[in-house]
Specification:
mainly alpha; 2 strands; elongated
Length: about 220
């Protein structure tokens, strides 16, 4: 077998190096999203109960993307090791696999069957980025849906996400804006029996009404 042949050109290697370089941080963000520490905008499975609409501390979509990302990297590491006669001794984490591939780009380039690696890894990276920062979408609600939305009890980030999807004047509902309304006594959190560590919830309709009724001050601009 000719081990001197390269199956990836310079441009493909550059792209691959860039993708692998961004994966450790992306993997960390995904892990945070999966266990509920990150303010991920991905759809979360929610627990339905009489006392709370809090999301479960586990993001199903982020977990699936995280696993796909690791599986892709592990597959390419395995292929390189088998064909190049290498023994993998690095970390088994997603970040560890990405760093190993990046350090061994020459071995990767000389591995038969690796031609599709850049496209494969790009696809899982794009999927991960889409979960962490999805494109904004606009909600279309009828009168019945609007009333149902107004009755919802959501935490700060749930309200902000919903407001951005509604668009229009509600796009400017931010963490600071909600805190300002609360400090001014315009909105108050809903009392409830949830655990002390859970974030406060607000009635969506009350926040939206207060936002419209009390315009934010505009910063002075130079004339």
């Amino acid at each position: 077998m000719d081990h001197s042949e390269r199956y990836l050109g310079i441009e493909a290697l550059r792209e691959l190096a860039g993708l692998l370089g961004c994966i450790p941080r992306l993997a960390e963000d995904l892990e945070d999203a999966v266990i509920g520490r990150a303010r991920s905008h991905a759809r979360s499975t929610r627990r339905r109960s009489r006392t709370s609409d809090q999301p479960l501390p586990f993001d199903v979509e982020a977990a699936e993307v995280r696993d796909n990302l690791r599986a892709s990297l592990a597959g390419w590491v395995r292929l390189v090791c088998e064909q190049r006669g290498l023994a993998y001794s690095g970390p088994r984490s997603t970040a560890g696999l990405a760093r190993w591939l990046r350090r061994n780009l020459i071995a990767v380039a000389m591995t038969r069957g690796v031609e599709s690696a850049p496209a494969d890894i790009r696809s899982v990276v794009v999927a991960a980025e889409r979960v962490m920062c999805p494109p904004p979408r606009r909600l279309t609600l009828d009168a019945t849906s609007i009333e149902a939305v107004r009755r919802l009890r959501l935490n700060t980030f749930g309200i902000i996400t919903l407001a951005k999807e509604m668009g229009g004047p509600f796009r400017t509902v931010t963490v600071r804006r909600l805190q300002t309304l609360r400090d001014a006594g315009k909105v108050v959190p809903v009392p409830g029996p949830w655990a002390p560590s859970w974030p406060e919830q607000f009635v969506v309709g009350e926040v939206l009404d207060a936002h419209l009724a009390h315009p934010a001050r505009r910063r002075k601009t130079e004339m």
